[in-house]
Amino acid sequence: MIHNFLTQLLAGLWNKFKQGSPVHAPSISKNDIVIFVVGPTGSGKSWFIKEATRAESVKSSRGYHPSSVKVQAIRCGLTDEAKADPQKGGVESIVFVDTPSFLTASDDIDAQKEITTWIDQMGHKPRYLGIIYMHRIETDPAIERIGDHLQELATIPRFGDNYQPLRLHVVVSYDRTSGSISYSRIKKHEDGLRTQMLSLPKSRWQPSMHQDHFQGEPEVAWKAVEELIKSDRTERGSL
Ligand SMILES: Nc1nc2c(ncn2[C@@H]2O[C@H](COP(=O)(O)OP(=O)(O)O)[C@@H](O)[C@H]2O)c(=O)[nH]1
Ligand SMILES: [Mg+2]
Fold this sequence. Notes:
seven-stranded mixed β-sheet, 8 helices, globular, binds guanosine-5'-diphosphate, binds magnesium ion, G domain-containing protein, P-loop_NTPase
C-alpha cells in the first residue's frame, strides 16, 4: 500500500533530494515518483519546479506568455543520506514534469498531444504518479473550465487506464511582488476553485487542496508533494 511504502521517506521530504537535472521520458524507471505539474499559463508551474528542484534549465516567465511549449522533466535523486535509509521504500528519485499550459492564448500548442507523447515514451510505469494543479490566486483564469481541461488529461490512455482515480493536489501560487490582493478576493477565488475540484467526477479524480500558498518557498513545494502522496487513498499495489 502506498501509505506504508513511503511513510518514512515522506517525513521531511524536502531535504532528502538533490538538485535536479533534465530527464527524458524513456529514462523513467519503476523506482521513480513522477509528479505532473499542470495548469493555465502563468499559474506558476515552472516557478514551482524551479524552486523545488533548483534546476538551472527551468525558466519561469513572470508573465503570461506560454514559455513552455514542450514537456520538460526534471529528476531529483535522493541524497546519499536518504539513499542509505532502509525505509526509502525502493524510491530512487522524484521527477517533476513541467507541462505546456492549458488555456493558452495561442491555439497552436497542443498540450494534450505533447503530454500524451511524453507519457507514451515513458520507459517504465513509475512507482507512483500524481498531479499538482497550479492556480495563480491574483487572477481568475476561467476556473470554471478546469473540469474540461482535466477531463482531457484523464482521457490520455496511459493515465486513464493505469492510474484512475487520479490523485490531484491543488496548489495556489501567490506572487506578492506583483501587487497585493484583498483577503476577500483570495477567499472568493479559493472557494471557486474548491467548488470546481469537488465537482470533478469521483470515478476519475481524487482531488485535494494545499493549505499554504506557494510564494516561492521550496519547503512549501515539497510539502505539497508530500501531501499529494500521503493522502492517496488508493491501493496501487504493484505500481
Ligand atoms: N516572485 C517571483 N514570482 C515568480 C517567479 N517566477 C514566476 N513567478 C510568478 O509566477 C507567475 C507564473 O510564472 P511561470 O511559472 O512561468 O508560469 P507557468 O506558465 O505556469 O509555467 C509569474 O507571472 C510570476 O507572477 C520568481 O522567480 N519570483
Ligand atoms: Mg512554464
